[in-house]
């Protein structure tokens, strides 16, 4: 079994991906960042420090069109965790979902309680947004940058999202945990031979470790 997944909600999910899904009857999951979807038309989206026009991403009407086909399911990609936050006195910016924010004014880090509340508020906000716009709450969470920890997993499960997709490479055996789903990342338009090689290299018999 193969599951196709597309992160971030780019406009070409509708113009390029969706026609292929319909042609072959393939199901897929799209992962949406609520704050980018909420940006008004004509404005810019802060895409990890890069300014992109709102029109680079799908509209909710386009998402609803895809969902209505029965081929596309919407997953949460967080409301506003797809960015870096200040993680230490040295000024390093680290993934917002797994980092206790450092406050240079007080020289202290975000408390565990404040951290968990921030993550819960974010995931719940995106869940409610997706449910309002599509009529169905997401059951899957796709972690920004593939970064997660035990606390984020517990919160996602408590909110009704037991399925979690990561950026850990590899295939999923039948006993693979559904809260740590691996994916084979397809980038830079590989030809068929390169794609086959990538799939063959990530079977459990030939493990690999990468920094993404």
Task: Provide structural commentary.
- The protein has 212 residues and is an alpha/beta fold.
- The chain has six helices and eleven strands.
- It has helices spanning 12-24, 34-38, 60-68, 112-134, 150-158, 192-201, and strands at residues 4-7, 28-32, 44-47, 50-53, 72-76, 84-86, 93-95, 102-103, 108-109, 140-142, 163-165.
- Strands 1-2-5 form a three-stranded parallel sheet. A two-stranded antiparallel ribbon has the order 3-4. A two-stranded antiparallel sheet has the order 6-7.
- Helix 4 (112-134) crosses helix 5 (150-158).
- It is globular and about 55 Å long.
- The protein starts with a strand and ends in an 11-residue tail after the last helix.
- The model has no long low-confidence stretch (mean pLDDT 93).
Question: Number of DSSP strands?
Answer: 11
Rg value: 18 Å
Tell me roughly what share of residues is in helical segments.
25-40%
The biggest beta sheet, please? 3 strands, parallel
SS-based structural class? alpha/beta
H and E string: EHEHEEHEEEEEHEHEH
In short:
This protein has 212 residues and is of the alpha/beta class. It has helices spanning 12-24, 34-38, 60-68, 112-134, 150-158, 192-201, and strands at 4-7, 28-32, 44-47, 50-53, 72-76, 84-86, 93-95, 102-103, 108-109, 140-142, 163-165.
Show the helix and strand layout.
Elements: E1 4-7, H1 12-24, E2 28-32, H2 34-38, E3 44-47, E4 50-53, H3 60-68, E5 72-76, E6 84-86, E7 93-95, E8 102-103, E9 108-109, H4 112-134, E10 140-142, H5 150-158, E11 163-165, H6 192-201
Parallel strand pairs: 1-2, 2-5, 10-11
Antiparallel strand pairs: 3-4, 6-7, 8-9
Helix pairs in contact: 4-5
């Amino acid at each position: 079994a193969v599951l196709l997944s597309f992160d971030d909600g780019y406009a070409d999910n509708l113009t390029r991906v969706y026609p292929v899904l319909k042609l072959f009857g393939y199901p897929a999951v799209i992962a949406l960042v609520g704050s980018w979807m909420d940006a008004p038309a004509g404005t810019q989206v802060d895409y990890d420090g890069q300014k992109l026009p709102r029109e680079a991403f799908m509209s909710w009407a386009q998402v609803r069109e895809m969902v209505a086909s029965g081929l596309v399911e919407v997953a949460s990609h967080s409301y506003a965790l797809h960015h870096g936050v200040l993680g230490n006195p040295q000024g390093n910016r680290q993934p917002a979902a797994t980092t206790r924010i450092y406050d240079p004014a007080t020289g202290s880090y975000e408390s565990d309680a404040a951290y968990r509340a921030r993550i819960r508020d974010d995931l719940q906000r995106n869940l409610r947004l997706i449910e309002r716009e599509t009529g169905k709450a997401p059951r899957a969470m796709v972690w920004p940058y593939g970064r997660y920890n035990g606390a984020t997993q517990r919160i996602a499960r408590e909110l009704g999202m037991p399925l979690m997709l990561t950026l850990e490479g590899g295939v999923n055996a039948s006993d693979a945990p559904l809260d740590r789903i691996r994916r084979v990342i397809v980038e830079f338009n590989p030809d068929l031979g390169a794609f086959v090689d990538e799939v063959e290299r990530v079977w459990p018999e030939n493990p690999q470790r990468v920094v993404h």
